[in-house]
Known about the structure:
This protein is α/β, with parallel strands linked by helices. Residues 286-290 have low confidence and may be disordered. The protein is globular. Helix 1 crosses helix 2 and helix 4 crosses helix 5 (131-140). It is built from nine helices and eight strands. Strands 1, 2, 3, 4, 5, 6, 7 and 8 form an eight-stranded mixed sheet that branches. The two termini are 25 Å apart. 36% of the residues lie in helices and 15% in strands.
Amino acid sequence: xxxxxxxxxxxxxxxxxxxxxxxxxxxxxxxxxxxxxxxxxxxxxxxxxxxxxxxxxxxxxxxxxxxxxxxxxxxxxxxxxxxxxxxxxxxxxxxxxxxxxxxxxxxxxxxxxxxxxxxxxxxxxxxxxxxxxxxxxxxxxxxxxxxxxxxxxxxxxxxxxxxxxxxxxxxxxxxxxxxxxxxxxxxxxxxxxxxxxxxxxxxxxxxxxxxxxxxxxxxxxxxxxxxxxxxxxxxxxxxxxxxxxxxxxxxxxxxxxxxxxxxxxxxxxxxxxxxxxxxxxxxxxxxxxx
Length: 290
């Protein structure tokens, strides 16, 4: 089995619609794919409707968190999307995304960059607007060559010249809410130093003691030593280890299935979840031109 547990669609900051994403996942030879858009479950229905036979969908989300001034992401799998406490927190984060993006646009304009909110909103096209959409506007203007190059202290990285904060969950609260909604909590790319500051290992240990299920190890932003260190930490604290592409369509260079999760780990995730269950494909409509 080939299992990719971290992907994004146009419901947040990917470039594939949920339907396009699941068709692409099947074409890439995946058996299981997780849809983990940022702070939203809006893409579920379309992904399920288009799910090809032979592909299983894991519903999830990637929750925005912050502790001691450091941003991090928590992957939530197979939770009940209607559980009110977690739904309320997701809504607070989503509602703060628009004023936050508008604030970043304002800061960029103060720096002499002729970006407009109208263009950023058009790039987001109804998805949960975020920094990648602002970054794409900077690429269009020739300010930076790639989306990744916008995530520096010069521009949009945490603490950068055009950075603006948004409502984010405390990660310990996030783990509690995910578990309370019957889900499984996995810390996304915890040692991705190229993204900025990362939390100390003591925070991972504390999260494990509070119910964290796993850590994402095999990821494009982790080099060999980082993966070795995370595997050791996982062994020390009884955490599951996952691998994922963090696919964003054409917005990033990663490919579907570039990194995958061991089937035994996937089986344990599904055993632990009580809020929702993986959805087997029944054969969605064929891709255009197929």
